[in-house]
Amino acid sequence: MSLKNIMIENVSPGIRVVRISRPKALNALNMETLDELKAVAEDAAGDPGVRIVVLTGDGDKAFVAGADISEMKDMDEARAQAFAWKGHEAMCALEEMPKPVIAAVNGYALGGGCELACACDFIIASDRAVFGQPETGLGIIPGFGGQVRLARFIGYPKARELIYSGRRLKADEALAMGLANSVFPAAELMSRVLELARQISQQSRGAVAAAKKLMNGFCEPGGTKVKLETEARIFSRLFSGRDQKEGMAAFAEKRRPAFDGLDA
Q1: Is residue 241 part of a domain?
Q2: Using one digit for the tens of pLDDT, what is the confidence trace for 29-83?
Q3: What is the DSSP letter of 190?
Q4: pTM (2 decimals)?
Q5: Is 115 considered catalytic here?
Q6: Which one is catalytic: 36, 95, 115, 231?
Q7: How many independent structural domains does the chain possess?
Q8: Which three-class secondary structure state does DSSP give residue 72?
Q9: In the chain, where do the E strands start and end?
């Protein structure tokens, strides 16, 4: 498997660390990285030597700072829908694999990065971690499952607040809200995560897989796929409006967007 933007390391028997590695772009998710992430998840799912996956970001600044806005800003509706589906395929590959996935959030987890963390079984965060869904400030909505999965962690009222406002959460607030299971000093994050991964890897593989399948089903009795299809359709439709163009231009120019309200 040839990878450009992801590094893989088998750190001990049964434990695979997957590291998103685009540090100059704060590990932002572009089309190529999403394809690689799906392939990596499928490979781990089918590898009998892998019992658990730890997902993290390269460097000390970001887990994943979001989707790659430089790639998104000029997308039309069709291209945006294709991008959303690549995101859904990658997130679903992680979510549906029969092995647990721990998100070791070592820095910014914004937009697509927060959505990626929420596609994992649970989140362990560094005290430097920052979470958020800032997409409404760009004239769009979360497009990789944010409307579906964030509410699983923190409930619909809190998820609505974060998505509508674009507000960011520091690690301690994410812990209090139930988004993160634990928070550790940055220097201890990976050792603590690997300690937990070793404990899980020693349990019955079949029982853990059964528990994951059941809990995913119980979380979404109405069917995740239908909800994701709706999200992708509405996400892409926003790329034909003025607010997306203004929001992403403002981001690139480091200024506040001037939304005219005509897309409402």
Answers
A1: no
A2: 999 999 999 999 999 999 999 999 999 999 999 999 999 999 999 999 999 999 9
A3: H
A4: 0.93
A5: yes
A6: 115
A7: 1
A8: helix
A9: 6-12, 14-20, 50-57, 62-64, 101-105, 108-110, 122-126, 130-132, 168-170, 182-184
